[in-house]
Amino acid sequence: MTVTARSGRGTALTVLSPMPRLWAGPLRAVLYVRKLLGPSRDLQRMSFIHFAHWSVITRFPFQERRSRYAYLLFRSDFNGSWDEYIDAFSIVIPRRMALIWGWSYGFPGALPTEPFRRYIRHNDLPVDHYWAAYPESSVTEVAAALRVRDAYRGHFGDLDPEAAPDHPAWPRFLHDVQSDLYTWERDDAPAT
Domain of life, per the record (predicted)? Predict the structure, then answer.
C-alpha cells in the first residue's frame, strides 16, 4: 500500500490507471462535458475536498513512441482519512465514478467500497512533495474565514480591527457572520 503525503490535516492522492488507448478520446469528451457543467451539488457538499482533477494521458514527454496504453490520472487533496475519502466517492457518486474509471483496466466498480479502495490503493502513486498553504485548516474553515474577512470589509472598510468592537455596526456584523465563526481547538492547547 502506498502511503499518501500529508501536510497538517491535508492529504494528497495521485492515482494513475492504465486504460485502452481506444477509450482516451471518449473519456476526454466525458471529462470536458463534466468540466463545462461544473462541480455537482454532491461534490460541493463534500467540503473536505480541496481539489480533484482527472486528466487523460496518451503520451508522456519522455516517450519517443506512443504508449500501448493511455492513462487516467487523478489528483486530489482532501482533509480526513484516506478510507473515508474513497468511501465518500463510492457512496455519494458511484455512477460518476463508474463513468470516469470504468474505462480503466481492472476497475471493479465503485460499490461495494472495499474492492474500489483496493483498486485505488493499487494504482496510487507515491507523492514526493506535498505542501498546503493552511495545513491546520479545512477547506470549510478557510472559506468561512474568507467570508468573515469580506463581511468585515463590507461593514468597516479599512477600520483597524482593534476599533471594530466599539463601532455601531459591530452587533450587525457579528449577526451576519455568526455561522462562519468557529472555535478551533488545537491539539497543543493547554487543558483548562
Answer: Bacteria
Cα–Cα distance for residue pair 95/104, rounded to 1 Å: 15
| Same-domain pairing of 83 and 173 | no
Output the CA torsion sign for 16, 21, 23, 29.
Answer: positive
Query: Over the chain, what is the mean pLDDT?
Result: 87
Number of domains in the chain: 2
Give the pLDDT confidence score for residue 60 in this predicted structure.
86
Q: How far apart are CA 3 and CA 6, in angstroms?
A: 9
pTM, two decimals, is 0.75
Q: Please indicate, yes or no, if residue 129 is contained in any of the structural domains.
A: no
Express each pLDDT in 129-162 by its tens digit: 888 788 788 778 888 899 999 999 999 999 999 9
Q: Distance between CA 36 and CA 101 in Å, rounded?
A: 19
Between the alpha carbon of residue 64 and those of residues 16, 17, 67, 84, the distances in Å are 20, 21, 9, 40
Q: What angle do CA 184, 185, 187 make, to 5 degrees?
A: 140
Query: Of 41 and 71, which is predicted with more confidence?
Result: 71
Rounded-to-integer distance, Cα 40 and Cα 54, Å: 15
Domain that holds residue 98: 6-123
For the sheet with 49-57, list strands across it. Answer: 6-7, 10-20, 69-79, 49-57
Q: Are residues 117 and 38 in the same domain?
A: yes
